[in-house]
Amino acid sequence: MGSRVEILNDGGYRSDGRRQFELRDIAIDLSRHGQADGSAMYTQGLTEVLVTVFGPREAKLRSQTIHNRANINVEVNIAAFSTGERRKRSRGDKRILELGAAIKSTFEPVIQTHLYPRSQIDIFVQVLQQDGGLLSAAINATTLALITAGIPLFDYVCAVSSGVHSTHAMLDLTTLEENDVPHLTVAVMPRTGKITLVTLETRLHSDRFEEVFRIACEAGKVLHEEMRNAIKARTSALARAMGEGHPAGAPSNREGDEDFEMGDD
Amino acid sequence: MEVDDTDGGETSLRSKITSPGESLTSSQAFMRGHGTYVEDDEVIASVAGTVERVNKLITVRPLQTRYNPEVGDLVVGRITEVAARRWKVDANSRQDAVLMLSSVNLPGGVQRRKLESDELQMRTFFEEGDLLVAEVQAFFADGAMSLHTRSLKYGKLRNGQLVTVPPILILRLKSHFYSLPCGVDLILGLNGYIWVSKHVKDNEQEGEEGFDAEAVYSNQNDEIDDATRAAVARVSNVIRVLAAHFVPLNDTVLVEAYEWVVEQEYTVKDLLLREDVADALVSAVATARPDL
Amino acid sequence: MTSTTTLPGEIVPAQHPNLKLGPGLLQSISGTSDSATIVSTRAGELQHSANRSKWWIESNARRYVPAAQESVIGQISGRAGEGYRVDIGGAHNASLDGLAFEGATKRNRPNLKVNSLVYARVSLAHKDMEPELECFDAQTRKAEGFGELKGGFVVKCSLGMSRRLLDPNHFLLPLLGSRFPLECAVGMNGRIWVDTKSAQNTIIVARCIEAADPDGGGLDEADVNKLLNGIQS
Amino acid sequence: MRPPSPSIPEREFALSALQQSMRIDGRTLLEIRPINLTFGPALGCVECELGKTRVLAFIDSKMIKPPEERPLEGIISIHSEISPMASSAYETGRPSDEEVAITRMLEKVLRRSDAVDRESLCIVAGQRVWHLRLTLHFLADAGNMLDCACLAAVAALRHFRRPEVEVVGEDVITYDPSERPPIPLAMHHTPYVLTFALFPFASTPAPQQTKLSSTHVPTPQLANSSITAVLDPSPLEASLLPSSSPSLLSLALTPQRELCVVNKAGGVPVSPEEFLWLVKVAEERVREVEACLEGGLLKAKAEAEGIGSL
Question: Which residues does the UniProt record annotate as the domain K Homology (chain B) (predicted)?
Answer without folding.
Answer: 160-200
